[in-house]
Amino acid sequence: MAKLLRVDGMVKFFNLNKEHTKNILVEIPENSEEQSTGLMNREEINENQGMLFIYDEPQHLSMWMKNVKFSIDIIFVNNRKIIENVIKNAEPLSSTLYNSKGPCKYAVEVIAGFTDTYRVEKGQQIEIKRNLGSLEGE
Q1: What is the pLDDT of residues 16-35, one digit of tens each?
Q2: Could you give the 3-state DSSP secondary structure of residue 33?
Q3: CB of 84 within 8 A of CB of 102?
Q4: How many Å apart are CA 120 and CA 14, to the nearest integer?
Q5: For residue range 56-102, what is the model confidence (pLDDT) as tens digits?
Q6: C-alpha–C-alpha distance, residues 47 and 26, integer Å
Q7: Whose CA is closest to 13, among 86, 100, 99, 95?
Q8: Domain that holds residue 66
Q9: Which residues contact 41 (CB under 8 A, 6 or more apart)?
Q10: Domain CATH code at residue 99
Q11: Inter-residue contact 40 to 67 (CB < 8 Å)
Q12: For the chain, what percent of residues have pLDDT higher than 90?
């Protein structure tokens, strides 16, 4: 099973009825260099893992797949933690820019197919838990 470099927190997903649907463990890039690197040069992640990008202010976000070896779904989230839009099956090793449809403060990257499996879509809410310490018993 693939591992995150760090477990910095958890993202909880809720459906449109505000029912909890899924949790994932996330690595949170803490500076611009880590944000630029993202999931580059990793072999894989599984459906219980992801990367959470947090920005200081809501803005139009763009993500790319340079040196990312596997397909992912990208979830753009506004400052109220409501999903603005979802990009499915972003192409590995591509320089295509994938953009938020409005100002967003967060982006969550998960393995491709996650958003279909857990029915993640625009208008749903997420919850973020940071600095939970060791979540995997390490």
Answers
A1: 999 999 999 999 999 999 99
A2: helix
A3: yes
A4: 8
A5: 999 999 999 999 999 999 999 999 999 999 999 999 999 999 999 99
A6: 11
A7: 86
A8: 9-130
A9: 67, 69
A10: 2.60.120.1140
A11: yes
A12: 87
